[in-house]
Amino acid sequence: MxxxxxxxxIETNKAEGERQLTLVFDDEMGIPKEDEYVFRxxxxxxxxxxENQLSIELLNAELLSEGLSIVxxxxxxxxxxxxxxxxxxxxxxxxxxxxxxxxxxxxDLPNFExxxxxxxxxxxxxxxxxxxxxxxxSMRLVFQMNPIDPLQTVSDAERASFxxxxxxQLARTNVSTPPVGENEFNMMLVHVETDATDxxxxxxxxNGYAQDLNVEQLPLELMSGDEAVALTVVRxxxxxxxxxxxxxxxxxxxxxxxxxFTVRIKQ
Length: 267
Known about the structure:
The longest helix is centred in the N-terminal third of the chain and has 13 residues, at 33-45. The chain is mainly β. The protein has helices at 33-45, 156-161, 164-176; strands at residues 12-16, 19-23, 54-64, 67-76, 87-92, 98-104, 116-125, 140-143, 185-194, 199-207, 217-224, 227-235, 244-252, 261-265. Strand 3 and strand 4 (67-76) form a beta hairpin. 12% of the residues lie in helices and 40% in strands. It comes from Exiguobacterium alkaliphilum. This is SLAP domain-containing protein.
């Protein structure tokens, strides 16, 4: 992957059907001369867009101590100027596994003119990434068009109780799963960890109702095949917000069964 610095302005064109797609740099971006050719190359090699399309292409990524710095190319064939606000973008690996999610706003992006390509600098902070990974040329950015149940914010203490592997899997599962049905409430098993005697299950409580639901305690059974091998009760410190997914953990102690395990709500 190629490095980029910020110094100068330039324009070039790429044909999209019978119309020109113009590569534009905002003055404040300050693109250096040596990077102009890199942007030209990428703008020309990318496949044509149909009319009324918007795309995002990852050009460069650099891991930093506080997260990931990305250079992306936004291309559009829309009929008029526009702004982007509250648009989620997923960072995917070669197998389409989500590595991170960022909601773009006017703070992150410039205004876009019709039929233009424009480089944009994006920062994925640590809480927008789903764990550690190595950079490679197969990573890509995509707009997340399908709705999801937003993760309900939990306290720092609750967040710290999840292992890194459990939280990473929880975040990946949440952005990859369609929302729960309207006026439904369900529980999704996300991750299972075992040690010598105990089993810890990471779960998502998904509320499809518009209103908050008070679930003060939830009795859960650990299943090994068709057999219930343990029982525990999860106590929630707050209501499950409407149209949200609440991450919780359930710990089952003194387990002699070997699994594989599932979890169900005790009837």
